[in-house]
From TrEMBL:
Keywords: Aminoacyl-tRNA synthetase, ATP-binding, Cytoplasm, Ligase, Nucleotide-binding, Protein biosynthesis, RNA-binding. This is Tyrosine--tRNA ligase. The gene is tyrS. InterPro entries: aa-tRNA-synth_I_CS, aa-tRNA-synth_Ic, Rossmann-like_a/b/a_fold, S4_RNA-bd_sf, Tyr-tRNA-ligase, Tyr-tRNA-ligase_bac-type, Tyr-tRNA-ligase_bac_2. Gene3D superfamilies: HUPs (3.40.50.620), RNA-binding S4 domain (3.10.290.10), Tyrosyl-Transfer RNA Synthetase (1.10.240.10). It comes from Corticibacter populi. Belongs to the class-I aminoacyl-tRNA synthetase family. TyrS type 2 subfamily. It is found in: Cytoplasm. A motif ('HIGH' region) lies at residues 57-66.
Amino acid sequence: MNASNIDNLPLTPAIEEALAVSLRGTDELLPQEDWIKKLQRAEATGTPLRIKLGLDPTAPDIHLGHTVVLNKMRQLQDLGHQVIFLIGDFTTLIGDPSGRNTTRPPLSAEQIKANAETYYTQASKVLDPTRTEVRYNSEWCDQLGARGMIELAAKYTVARMMERNDFHQRFQDGSSISLHEFLYPLLQGYDSVALKSDLEMGGTDQKFNLMMGRHLQQEWGQEPQCVLTMPLLVGLDGVHKMSKSKNNYIGITEDANTMFAKVLSISDALMWDWYPLLSFRPLAEIEVLRAEVAQGRNPKDIKVLLAKEITARFHSAQAADAAEQDFVNRSKGGIPDDIPEITLGGAPLGIGALLKSAGLTASTGEANRLIDGHGVRIDGGTVGDRTLKLSAGTYVVQVGKRKFARVTLLA
């Protein structure tokens, strides 16, 4: 079907719905006119569009920040399009320089392999695995060889590469930029060539890399992909984007009680940023909830709805209900029904050593800081003395709001 035929196709209700789904919560959709034409062609020919998302397995876990784009991908998948979950096992050897002010330390091949093995399993909690094409970019990147890499590098200029904000800023600051970092956006763009993608998705920090895909597809004589960027999800701290390195994340494999409580911990203002990105409720319904809060409804009620929706998505409705009850019990000072049972020896044992040995803190130093901050309880009473020694017996130990253990201490 040629371009003139596409221009004459009508904007049907199905295409209008697909466009609305595409635009919900989106930062940019570029070029929108080309995306409409692709949707029109797909409807007219019955050929699904190829929609690509690449993730580098730099860590073993996927968190809620990753699911912002995965959710959008699932929505387009449900409209009948072919989604491609690309695991960047080759590009992880370089490390994505996007948003970095230093060269990213490389991971070993063993680390990458171990992380990659868990990625798709976790992504399948969002995507329909029976309708998802899974690829690894080592399939074509390994085959490039030195000659192919030189030919690829010839497709872009250093001047244009230095237009990237992070590269430009690092150059201005006198920070080092390794030559291999220039290869990252080129290889990500080459992924689009290899997969013949119609749309590539990513966070706003990926825009340069996504646009590289358009450029290289044109260099290879392909129709250029469209680019869809989603906002970066702000983490639990309300300041930085969700990241394991910032410890402000919610992993999608975390237990239901922890997941629910972490969502409840975000600020009321941040909740409204999370709703359109993480909730599947219609936008009109979210606006009704916002209006109810403006009219006096307790915002915690609305936050509970979000926490239950997210927890149910990755666990079950029953688990979400139980997590809510667990949170209520804890907020009243109650003890959860199901807490770890731990037996330790060495009584009398110092409280710091006990907390570390029970796995409630990472170190005795952390234990001491929590005690100084009144964050440790024994049988409901706050511990204020870091030199406390516990004799043989059984104790319910609480650290912070969410960590509990029933510790039996033996002589």
